[in-house]
């Protein structure tokens, strides 16, 4: 997409602090072999926030809410496109109270329209695909929406994300490869595929011309693949929040 302005230019981000309740009570698919080191998780999260600021974003930092152990994973709570925000009805009942604060935050940031999903639609794990897509398309019609099958991972972004304007990094698992075939079939734009051996490594962020991916120590078998992509890059550690299924993209909502 040389000569064209990137579609991944953002001015603001929303993040939330790490609650003390996270190590013991956050949702997770599998229990990690080692417990979450809370202090290390906070340090890594601070580096994440600092990175967003360093690439030019105005960051709104919400305080941790101890009654919601997963509150640091703000991406689950809303989708923003072209000034319209869709506030999610989260899949796990214990998280649904997070939506109230997020709706208020999005309104304060001047979004043109902030709407909430209605029952029975859900926007994260365990959601009803047909109702989710229907509500998403109705509330954000300027963003075409198709369903992609996700069975073993929490989210599609757990196994593929944008790494540049036209490159999608895809994990090496069978599920990731099958999902990619669906994306190829349904996408209106022809994306380039770059495969990494580990699905974990496939979760990265392309923000304001900078590719943010996991630290080399966390993805030793995949980091060389990222080196094939031209442009500015940044590595971040996420070893602690990954123990409760947290990815880099989970930690922020980006606004243009």
UniProtKB/TrEMBL annotation:
Signal peptide: none annotated. Keywords: Hydrolase. GO terms for molecular function: amino acid binding; dimethylargininase activity. One of its GO terms (biological process) is positive regulation of nitric oxide biosynthetic process. It comes from the Eukaryota. Gene3D superfamilies: L-arginine/glycine Amidinotransferase, Chain A. InterPro entries: DDAH-like. The active site is at residues 155, 250. Pfam families: DDAH_eukar (PF19420). Its EC number is 3.5.3.18. The keyword Nucleotidyltransferase does not apply. The keyword Hydrolase applies. SUPFAM superfamilies: Pentein. It is an enzyme of class 3 (hydrolase). Belongs to the DDAH family. This is N(G),N(G)-dimethylarginine dimethylaminohydrolase 1. It comes from Desmophyllum pertusum. The gene is DDAH1.
